[in-house]
């Protein structure tokens, strides 16, 4: 049995777990790429950063994506242009800011930072994350909702997410604008 067939068999038998592992791989790969190939500061590789991002993919991205996209598909089935446009709008104007809050909150929590640090991070970077998302995810989700079968949505998203996670990795780990140093 080929890899694709095995993946689909796992997706059918254990959809939530399979999507969670798919997201773990996507977020881990994105951070590995960010740290190894686009490291402008010359800092040494941060294994804990990769673990934080990978665990975010596994615990939050894969699971919430499974339920959110399943809900969206159940309430708005089909691929008519108005349906696709509506799904993209809901994803980008409602889910995207919620996802950003979860992402920054998870990193804040796993780094042991305060709620004040979290609110500063949201004020500093949430708008950038949301608007940066639009450039990638509006066209990507237009393809997603028009052509990708619902069961494959998270795999498609995670494939694109690898590149997008380079951006998220940098944004999530950049120092606060108020001059505070990032806690390790």
UniProtKB/TrEMBL annotation:
Membrane topology reported for the UniProt record: Multi-pass membrane protein
Thylakoid recorded as keyword: no
Regions annotated as coiled coil: none
GO cellular component: cytoplasm; membrane
Membrane-spanning parts: 50-72, 92-109, 129-148, 154-173
Family the UniProt entry places it in: Belongs to the peroxisomal membrane protein PXMP2/4 family.
The protein's name: Mpv17-like protein
UniProt entry tagged with the keyword Chloroplast: no
Key words, A-Z: Membrane, Transmembrane, Transmembrane helix
Principal localisation: membrane
Location of this chain's protein in the cell: Membrane
């Amino acid at each position: 049995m080929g890899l694709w067939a095995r993946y689909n068999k796992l997706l059918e038998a254990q959809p939530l777990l399979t999507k969670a592992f798919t997201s773990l791989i996507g977020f881990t790969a994105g951070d590995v790429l960010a740290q190894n190939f686009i490291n402008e500061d010359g800092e040494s590789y941060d294994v804990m950063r990769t673990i934080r991002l990978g665990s975010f993919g596994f615990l939050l991205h894969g699971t919430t994506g499974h339920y959110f996209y399943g809900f969206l598909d159940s309430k708005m089935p089909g691929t008519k242009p108005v349906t696709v446009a509506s799904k993209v709008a809901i994803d980008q104007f409602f889910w995207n800011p919620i996802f950003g809050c979860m992402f920054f909150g998870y990193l804040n929590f796993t780094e042991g930072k305060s709620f004040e640090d979290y609110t500063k991070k949201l004020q500093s970077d949430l708008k950038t994350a949301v608007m940066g998302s639009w450039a990638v995810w509006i066209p990507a989700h237009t393809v997603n909702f028009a052509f990708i079968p619902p069961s494959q949505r998270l795999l498609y998203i995670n494939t694109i997410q690898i590149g997008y996670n380079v951006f998220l990795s940098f944004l999530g780990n950049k120092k606060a604008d108020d001059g505070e140093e990032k806690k390790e």
